[in-house]
Amino acid sequence: MIRVGVVGASGYTGLELVKMLVSHKEFELTYLGTTSGDAMIEGLHPSLSGVITMNVKVATADGVAQMCDLAFLALPHKASMGFAKELIARGVKVVDLSADYRLELETYEKFYCEHEDRENLPQAVYGLIEYYREEIGKSSLVASPGCYPTATLLGFLPLVPYIDPASPVFVDAKSGVSGAGKKLSETTHFVTINDNIFAYNPLKHRHAPEIREKILKVHGVDTQVNFVPHLIPATRGELVSVYAKLSDEHLGIDPIAILKERYKNDPFIRIRTEPVDIKSTAGTHFCDIFAAVHGNGLFISSAIDNLLRGASSQAIAAANLMCGLDESEGLPVIAYVP
Ligand SMILES: NC(=O)c1ccc[n+]([C@@H]2O[C@H](COP(=O)([O-])OP(=O)(O)OC[C@H]3O[C@@H](n4cnc5c(N)ncnc54)[C@H](OP(=O)(O)O)[C@@H]3O)[C@@H](O)[C@H]2O)c1
Q1: pLDDT tens-digit map of 112-126
Q2: What spacing in Å lies between the alpha carbon of 183 and ligand 1's midpoint?
Q3: Residues spanned by CATH 3.40.50.720 within the chain?
Q4: Domain spanning 148-306, CATH architecture
Q5: pLDDT higher than threshold 80 for residue 11
Q6: Which of 7, 62, 87, 114 could hold 92 in an S-S bridge, CB 3.0 to 4.6 Å?
Q7: Distance 262 CA to ligand 1 centre (A)
């Protein structure tokens, strides 16, 4: 068995990781850590009562390195890179769920903070499974993509070659409240979000440069990404709508056929002929995609579970590949609700 640990186990994505790892056939959960530590995991997450009983420690790189071959870092950005640097130095493979290793140095320092691990950053592989499978399989440091970039890129990348590169792209995204993590705030307070929907950080959100950078990396096209995220009164789930202008020579394309062809060997991408919804992917690793054209207008709709395909199950899929296992081992496929 491969020994794995979760740092940030008391958080939302940490819980999802633990839920999948307890029944994973090849990974053995040997370490759980947070800042506050010294608790029982089932005490932090009552949903795990009777499923697992395990002590949660105050997370240290030493502690992880002694107990693990691979570690998942479900930590806020900045907190992750300190750990990753130490763990990589001790030969532990790392899958990071934060933004610390997703971007080029310049982009990261412009939109986040000073990078504290410039040595390992260039070696990090972007964990968008359907685009970097081979590189992930050879890597010891994977940066799991952000939830909004995951849904946007999986829907948009196959159709980028057909758009007018000089025209701006608009991305309208809607996420359940768990996308913000467990820390309390007025914005995520029940009274604020219930029966409500509103944009936040319009055209200024940090996932826009991530989307732009990855489109440039995959297609060499530098698109202006106008990204507007919204909060919706749901616990989990993410719906992304992309609006773009087709180039004149591509007015007659069949986007569904293009998407089906691109993802014909990707079992966790479902191309729909009707607009997608968040309920059908809640609790699963699936990404559901729909697209349509009208004149020179292109519309793409992509739905995922922000905590799974947008975070923890994508991280597990990457870890499976890093350890030479079947990519789908331990990934959830049954949606929670009818
Ligand atoms: N939520 C999503 O949908 C989503 C999607 C994609 C990516 N992500 C990324 O995944 C990461 C985790 O997100 P989350 O939603 O799970 O956050 P969260 O619910 O706020 O949990 C954060 C966890 O990190 C721990 N922590 C914080 N600072 C720490 C430190 N310095 N050392 C050790 N542990 C520390 C916390 O432990 P304590 O309880 O002890 O404070 C907690 O367990 C973030 O970088 C986030 O951007 C989240």
Answers
A1: 999 999 999 999 999
A2: 9
A3: 2-123
A4: 2-Layer Sandwich (3.30)
A5: yes
A6: 87
A7: 33
Return the CATH superfamily for domain 2-123: NAD(P)-binding Rossmann-like Domain (3.40.50.720)
- Over the chain, what is the mean pLDDT? 97
Determine the average pLDDT of the residues in 312-318.
Answer: 98
DSSP string, 118-187: TTTGGG-EE--HHHHHHHHHH-SEEEPPPHHHHHHHHHHGGGGGGB-TTS-EEEEEEE-GGGG-SS--ST
Residue pLDDT, tens place only, 170-195: 999 999 999 999 999 999 999 999 99
Is the CB of 36 within 6 Å of ligand 1?
A: yes
Question: Which ranges in the chain are annotated with CATH 3.30.360.10?
Answer: 148-306
Average pLDDT in the 199-214 region? 98
252 CB-side CA count, 13 A: 1
